[in-house]
Amino acid sequence: MTVDGAVKGPIREWLMANATGGRPVSDDQPLIRDGLLTSLMVVELVMFLEQQFGVVIDDMDVSEENFASIQAIAELVDRKRA
Amino acid sequence: MTHRAVFTLHDMARNAAERDPSGIAVVSGSDRYTFADLLGAAEAMAAALVEHGVRLGDRVAIYAEKSFVAVAAMVAASLAGAAYVNVNPLLRARQALHILRDCDVRLVIGDADKLAALGEEAPERAFVVGDQVPDVPRAGGWLTVAEVLRGEPGRAALPRVQEHDMATIIYTSGSTGLPKGVVFSQRNVVVGAEIVATYLENTSDDRILSVLPFSFDYGMNQFTTALLVGATLVLQRSAFPADVIRSLREYEITGLAGVPPLWGLLVQMGRELEERPLTSLRYITNSGGQVPAAHVAELRRLLPTTKIYLMYGLTEAFRSTYLPPDERDRGPACIGKPIPNTDIWVLNEKNEHCAPGEIGELVHRGPTVSLGYWNRPEDTAERFRPNPFAPPGLPHPEWVVYSGDLVWRDEDGFLHFVGRKDNLIKTQGYRVSPEEVEDVLIGTGLVQEACAFGMPDPDHGQHIVAVVVPRGDQEVSADEVRRACVRQAPPYMVPKVIQIHQGILPRTPSGKIDRQAVRDAYAG
Lengths: 82, 524
Description:
Chain A: This is Carrier domain-containing protein. With 82 residues, chain A is an all-alpha fold.
């Protein structure tokens, strides 16, 4: 699935501010496996996504698979906007 | 049926394999491993440990994500007479190296990327989880677990191991300094499993979800209780709420152990749980901090057929108290009554029993009292002291643990938690010392002085506040310091609030940073 940069940009900025310590993060970098994103932080990220993109993320969407990388998160947002 | 004695962790594994060799011991994703698989892998790995120079009393670290290999490695170390040291996979190289150096590990069993990240100081000997040894200069003496498991189990003679031998070292933070290793004997581990399995009424029909890290005494306990009774341990790497709920359903989990943040996440899934109730879940247990009363009430509503056990334990004595599920509404700070086979005392400064309602220090006496802190006689002498009530004719002291936790006992004998005597921070179920946080802050190179403390937090027990003085004339923002911490420390250790202080921090007459004065100035 292709996802436009307008979705990935704000996600990347949020991650750099809150998870990676300012380090750039690529679309495919494994966020959870690399210990950058935890289950507690994801609650804040979900709130950010809902506000930023005007989507509703269902409880059962808050899984590692959907938050594994910027690509995965952007695809989730895209599905919710559809 | 023949009586099967249990003196060691590997006795549990052998007994389980003999009772029910094809029973499922471990589930990891779509993979299932029987008790025979577990014992077989552990025996092969134990032989390899001995072949690679591991001897009785040596330390073997396990630095890996949860996996069947990580579980088998604990049993393997036990068979080889070595103490296993579970290193939390969340730890970065800086914290992991402290542990490996502190207890001078002989060999590490770990994930390739984690071992490679240790750089120059990576261990000489390692078994790498997976099929390939990473391409790093230190990897000359490393081999893969896959190779190890292909070896003949009987090729090296295993030592005689008994209950007074060391079983494991668990690193935990105190009120000062970097983490210390609490040493557990085989007896501590076995009796800890027996006590907890007794009051949770575990049987071989249980399927226990392992969400917490094995590096945490309470997290290791799900494994040891499952192994003792022949229950199935389901490994759960993700603590994301949707994943936890999927696993609870898919594997029809009967027992779930968590720390307060997990319950906060589950409560947020209320509608999901209302629509599709978790009917298999027989019990949940909490430890590692107080669950907010509102969350307990909500869990009772969402899980009407599930028993809720609120537990309290300090790593130095494994487990101490629990509040049985039929006891409720004794107040949010109630930690219940002593676990079986254990005395919990509330003592005043003169070492006398406190009257009901009077606040004193929680002191633990029983068979789970550990052997002390590895290589730290002074710290050990402070926490582990002779039983003050022992009959005077006994020539040898019996060690009891002075917890540093302040509690009181009510008229019905229930204990209530008040707080800490010292500066120890309890956050997200973890114990963190102020110095550990300050070490990370100074390690960023951005600050010259730092003082960290805990502040009450409704969701996380406490959150960490740090007051820092920028280095030299540098202009540094709190955000920059925070970002640098994120790179060098696990998420739970990163201060939630960072305050920049101009000038030097307040000092005590002896010249140390005056923690109380800093706290008073910045806690508001």
